[in-house]
Amino acid sequence: MNVKSIELDFFRNYVHLDCAFSPDVNVIYGENAQGKTNLLEAVAYLSTASSHRARYDRELIQFGVGSGFIKAQVFSRERDFTLEARLARGARRQLFSNGVRLKTAGELAGILNTVLFCPEDLSLIRDGAAARRRFLDDCICQLRPRYAAALAEYRRLYEHKTRILRDWEEKPSLLDTLDEFSLRMAQTGAILIHYRAHFIRRLKDHAPAIHADFSGGREILSLSYETVKTVTDPEAPAREILPQLLAHQESHRRAELESRQCLSGPHKDDLTVLLDGISAKDYASQGQTRTAALSLKLGCREIFQQETGEWPVLLLDDVLSELDHRRQEFVLNRISGGQVFITCCEDDTVQGLDQGTAFHIHGGKVVGG
Ligand code: ATP
Ligand code: MG
After folding, report:
1. Predicted TM-score (pTM) of this structure
2. Spatial separation of the C-alpha atoms in residues 316 and 291, rounded to whole Å
3. Which ligand is closest to the CA of 54, given by its number?
4. Whose CA is nearest to atom 26 of ligand 1?
5. Whose CA is nearest to atom 9 of ligand 1?
């Protein structure tokens, strides 16, 4: 799939933009604060009707203006689509596909898949387990609706059980329902573990190979899934995982009551990332951190491609800084298959580009190539 062209009206710092793209690599370059990230954000918005950095849709509309839109010609599943998001202050956004109004953002699913890498994604390597769980959840939710449903249910149960554990001393009758919530959390949790384990196995088939290539064969990335200790085989069917989760809950029952927190379950899962056998979180350099985070995202992109038969559009925001020449060359020329958008600051990196098209952005306008 690819974005053939985009039209923006009063979107962020773009008054109006009409721009056609290459189906291969598009390098978006320019000085700071000119609109490079905004352009990627516009493309990503048409994929999920949400922005990775705006809390509210109104932030996307140009300051001092009442409404704006993002419109794109997209080629997907052997067909042409016109996708449009109309944004207006004080009103809900409206989404259209080929002129037909969509009832929900869910109806956009599968038309334009994107994988976005932005500077915040370095947290995937640097931060605590929550950042990696979010990555896993985002990827698996897009591929498996059943997982998305189980995750929503698990979160609801977790919040409820947390409230029981927090308030039981003041209100002992709450304990009557504790076992019921624990059981349902274990049932739903077993489903999450099963799906996560399978996704991570597939990620292991892709991400380490990408990282090896990216680093010129210098570094070995390894991944492992850390879940509830009593689970012997996380890839087993959920019904086999369930009794193991219940056993863990049982042994932590007293500790949960005393600490007033949910201590047992896959809400504590992690995806451990090692570089040459040592923890990337604790020891990776800036360039290694970026390489590893990007390898995870690119691994996810390959899994999407296998699942859907089409490459998702890859959006790389500010990925080149901190990378040495070899690694920059990998990003610019060796990510094969599918359409790629890369933003960068210096125009000299554009010299290293063998294929594709460059766009110079200045003040919310394309001023050259
Ligand atoms: P950098 O290289 O620093 O990452 P960039 O080219 O990616 O820069 P953007 O994040 O795209 O820059 O932002 C460009 C400008 O858009 C910023 O100066 C910002 O103030 C402006 N901007 C953001 N939202 C709006 C809005 N709603 N209306 C008008 N301008 C906006
Ligand atoms: Mg930017």
Report:
1. 0.91
2. 12
3. 1
4. 12
5. 35
**CA distances from residue 234 to 189, 198, 205, 278 in whole angstroms, order as listed:** 11, 8, 17, 23
Closest to 81 in 3D by CA, of 164, 181, 1: 1
User: pLDDT grade, residue 142 (50/70/90)?
Assistant: confident
Residues 358, 366: Cα–Cα separation, whole Å: 10
Report whether pLDDT(347) > 70: no
User: What mean pLDDT is reported for the chain?
Assistant: 95
Q: What is the mean pLDDT of residues 244-256?
A: 97
Q: Tell me the best of 8, 10, 13 to mutate to test the pocket of ligand 1, counting ligand atoms within 8 Å of each CB and taking the most.
A: 13
Query: Which residues lie near ion ligand 2 (Cβ < 5 Å)?
Result: 36-37
Question: 270 by DSSP, 3-state: which?
Answer: strand
Q: Which residues pair with 18 in a beta bridge?
A: 7
Q: How many CA atoms lie within 13 A of 127 on its CB side?
A: 14
Which of the residue ranges 265-274, 306-315, 340-349 would you say has the lowest mean pLDDT? 340-349
Pocket test for ligand 1, best of 29, 36, 51 (most atoms within 8 A of CB): 36
